[in-house]
Amino acid sequence: MPTNLSALLPSLMLSLAALASACKSIPNPMSTKPPASLPPAAAFGKTKAGESATVWTLKNSRGLIAKVTDYGATLVELHVPDKAGKLADVVLGFGDVAGYEGGDNQYFGCTTGRVCNRIAKGKFTLNGKEYTLAINNDPNHLHGGKERSLSKVMWRGAPYETRRGKELVEQGVVFTYTSPAGEEGYPGTLLVTVTIALTRESELRMDYEARLQDAAPGDATPINLTNHAYFNLAGAGSATVLDHLLKLEADQYTPTDDTLIPTGELKPVKGSELDFGKPHRIGDRIPADTTPWKGYDHNFVVNGKAGEMRLAATVKDPASGRVMEIHTREPGIQFYTGNFLKGQTGKGGKTYPHRSAICLETQHFPDSVNQPKFPSTIYKEGQTYRTSTIHKFRAE
Ligand code: BGC
Questions:
Q1: So what's the architecture of 3-34+42-395 in CATH?
Q2: pLDDT tens track for 307-330
Q3: What residue's CA is closest to ligand 1, atom 9?
Q4: Rounded (10°) CA dihedral 316, 112, 137, 130
């Protein structure tokens, strides 16, 4: 297959999945048996509402293994080799859908939205109309809401793989979900597609697409999507991430008030505990538990041009040698040190103590919908939201 054609395949798959969802005549991919070479599916338990969840296993030729489920379009497992070739699962999560629906789930690995992070007081005004959203992080709205955020609904999953001759280029699942108008208070019916893929370059790639459906000219809605994976490169369940080294490609951050709502300014990080221009051990300068952010919980402004794929963060666990690079088209990245992890039990009986994982959530800035100076998160009828983030792994 010519290189350019195979490079186009992922976006072709996206469009096909969106089309499949749009014209409901195309059968559910799970209702017909997929060819043997596609990423295998397994049952992942039933939701409280009685829906059957599925988990797919993705592999690449360099030993990486990922598992993804249709509940919340969630990354469940990610096995990455260390410098001796030994695999460890580096993301926090649960062994079945009941775990993800339970009170111990703090957005582990999910697709977060319709608007990730906070919206001040759960209010915004669009086209002259005020919208009120759930206050689920007092006094603000967090991660798309309380009951029907994108992280808490069942998506439709379509597994695929791309080969060049016999060589496996990537395996992935295209997740689609149609969020009805008014769901969690957001305006407009929104068709969302998220592709989670594992590539032969040892990348975990997430491609997002969304657009309003059945909308009238002038209709608009805010969109800001991310994945909320919690990483511990020593292996999920390890005591802490304070020994990890972090480098951030960010000269500025968005300072906030005490409820983590941005003030609207951009401030330089230089000389402060937020300066990760050179790699720093995370634990060396971490803000105290007594600060309003209780550790790191800050949005950084990624250097370079938003919309272009560029390096945003590099994390290394010196003991195992595992390194993760994050590349994104997004203008921002939320660096959060698992300050609210409470020792809950996850997959395989492992516990997740305070600060035992980091999240690096690529995103538009928090509360953008109320911040005229920030890059806009508003999408109008006829416009398509598109973004991508790549997590690239190596060991050294
Ligand atoms: C937020 C944190 C929050 C965490 C878990 C992060 O994106 O910035 O404040 O506690 O998600 O919900």
A1: Distorted Sandwich (2.70)
A2: 999 999 999 999 999 999 999 999
A3: 297
A4: 140
